[in-house]
TrEMBL record:
Residues 1-21 form the signal peptide. InterPro entries: UPF0194_transport (IPR050465). It is found in: Cell envelope. Keywords: Coiled coil, Signal. Residues 95-153 form a coiled coil. GO terms for cellular component: cell envelope. The lineage of its organism: Bacteria, Pseudomonadati, Bacteroidota, Chitinophagia, Chitinophagales. The keyword NAD does not apply. This is HlyD family secretion protein. It comes from the Bacteria.
Length: 312
């Protein structure tokens, strides 16, 4: 019986120290921020140049969805906007005949004024009758009234033209908004990669029909990765946000690969120990999740087991 308890104590000690006899404070699995890129437009996927394991940069155009219909709709709206310009006119264009008429009337008035002055001089010398001068005065007055009426007509035409143009161009703003909406739909036909990272899973292929919200591929930035470890309540006083800790992964059968890590999050609620996680104290049923940020050199993979040390 004594040897049995000694063996059990040794096994418990080894378990608390890790699988290689080196102590650790918390253990867990590595995870990364994963982004599922979805279609933002309906239509056939014309191209999707993503392969699982491929490295993409933010802003890369990785595919294209057919946007023939919104393209035609945009062309139609732009044609309607161009047609509006043809419906408008300037006062000079519309009043061309009236302006020519005014020029003729003003020329006639000048001629009448000269004749009026000549006749006035002749009357003073008794070379013309008073009736001739009165007739010229009447013609001058009549011509001035005609010129005044013509100018009023031009002003009225200018006003009417302005009102007509405003009425026609009031249709332009809604059409421009429609054109902008179609342009946005066309832009969303391009599949733009949102983050730097590695493609984890591809969900669609070229030739398939895409609908808005359909997943196309999943990508994660594995340059920076997080170890989600679990610590029991007795360890909480030893850790804080921003604290530098040591993180390690298995390297071969008898060695570890070490990294520097930073604690970025500590859960404020306890949870039951996940079945896949070994804690330092196996008797601890309730643990606290801790996220440790690690700069990845390419050897750490999502889901890989890792250990954290902060008290050694």
């Amino acid at each position: 019986m004594k040897s049995f308890f000694s063996l059990a104590a040794v096994l418990l000690l080894l378990n608390s120290c890790g699988n290689k006899g080196v102590p650790y404070d918390a253990a867990g699995n590595f995870e990364a921020d994963e982004v599922i890129v979805s279609a933002q437009q309906n239509g056939e996927i014309l191209s999707l140049q993503t392969q699982e394991g491929a490295t993409l940069r933010i802003g890369d155009t990785v595919g294209r969805i057919d946007v023939k219909i919104p393209t035609l709709q945009k062309d139609q709206v732009e044609a309607s906007i161009a047609a509006l310009q043809q419906k408008t006119s300037t006062p000079a264009e519309k009043n061309l005949l009236v302006r020519k008429q005014l020029e003729v009337q003003e020329s006639q008035l000048e001629q009448l004024l000269r004749e009026q002055q000549r006749t006035t001089n002749l009357v003073k010398e008794d070379a013309a009758t008073r009736k001739q001068l009165d007739d010229l005065n009447s013609q001058v007055d009549q011509m001035r009234k005609q010129i005044s009426a013509t100018k009023q007509q031009m002003s009225l035409d200018d006003y009417n033209t302005s009102v007509q143009n405003r009425t026609v161009m009031s249709e332009k703003a809604p059409l421009e908004i429609s054109a902008a909406q179609y342009a946005e739909q066309i832009r969303k036909g391009l599949i733009i990669n949102p983050i730097n990272g590695t493609v984890l899973t591809r969900y669609a292929l070229a030739g398939e029909l895409a609908t808005i919200g359909k997943p196309l591929y999943k990508i994660a930035n594995t340059d920076t990765i997080w170890l989600r470890a679990y610590a029991d309540g007795t360890q909480l006083p030893q850790i804080r946000l921003g604290q530098q800790v040591q993180v390690r992964i298995d390297q071969g059968k008898k060695d570890y690969k070490n990294y520097k890590g930073t604690i970025t999050w500590i859960s404020d609620k306890s949870e039951f120990t996940p079945k896949t996680i070994q804690t330092k104290n196996e008797r601890a049923n309730l643990v606290y999740a801790v996220k440790i940020k690690v700069v990845n050199d390419g050897y750490i993979k999502i889901g890989m087991y890792g250990e954290a040390l902060w008290s050694h």
